[in-house]
Amino acid sequence: MKSLFSIFKNGLQKTATSLVRGVQSVFTETKPWTAEDFEHLEGLLIQADLGVVTAAELVNDLKERYDRGKIATREDIRRAMAEDVTKILEVAGAGNPFTPAAKPPTVVLLVGVNGTGKTTTAAKLAHLWQQDGLKVMLAACDTFRAAAVEQLVHWGARVNCPVVAGKPNSDPAAVAFDAATRARNEGMDILLVDTAGRQHTRKALMDELGKIARTIAKACPGAPHEVWLTVDAGIGTNAVTQAREFSKIVPLTGLIITKLDGTGRGGSLVPICRELRIPVRFAGLGERETDLQPFRPDFFAQALFEVKVTGSP
Ligand SMILES: Nc1nc2c(ncn2[C@@H]2O[C@H](COP(=O)(O)OP(=O)(O)O)[C@@H](O)[C@H]2O)c(=O)[nH]1
Ligand SMILES: [Mg+2]
Question: 287: CA distance to ligand 1 center in Å?
């Protein structure tokens, strides 16, 4: 089995290669570094989807370290940036699945744009937690498409997890209510609610998401306890806008970065964590139920700047 670090490394290869090449070409180790050099670096970080504000912060910190004589080589630059990015990603809760609700079930709502991996992630989480001995139930609240309900039902059969599904076109909030009631009555530890993909720009759909959350609270007071946004690693800075808009409707408590097994970009996670202070809980690393791993801020940051970790391959 490949190490998690090498998987992150492969997933971030494209971004990392251009960042490393950029640092090599901008900074020489024989001449003093100029303000212009640092400005170039800032541009590189923006191109890597780190966002304007994060890029400026990273570069300011680097300049300061340089002025104090703390960094002198190009490798130092990458190490310093990896350290800073690790700190940004180390939002409380990163890599932790959840804090169980005082009164079970803990309800986890999965939200996100179409195709980002909500349904697959629901199945992966169900599989993972059942392996940990927890009683899990899935709710299929993507009632817009019959195929979407079938997809989750199919996954449920595959990972051997009960699924509460509504009829196609039924009210997703009603399905969520039924599922929450059943999960409570049947002594489930966790209810995972899969929702329809929605563009953050479509107001009616976003309002409906708010309704789903409020309805769940009627069946299980305090729920949903967790609301996790799936973010496709291949998407650029638009991910920040998505996260911001979703968090206005339902307070997000976690991110899942999916498709990190492809040659994604992934840099946009950094500005999301910085701005919204949401921890990344898991990384999706493939299409099977076992392809999910707790997120590691340090591995991610080191992979992004191709900093070698001691003991890594
Ligand atoms: N390679 C890869 N594919 C994924 C991952 N997560 C989801 N997918 C694929 O992405 C597509 C959309 O996933 P789905 O869960 O249906 O997205 P949803 O619309 O948000 O529910 C499917 O073909 C999944 O198999 C992942 O971590 N890695
Ligand atoms: Mg889906």
Answer: 6
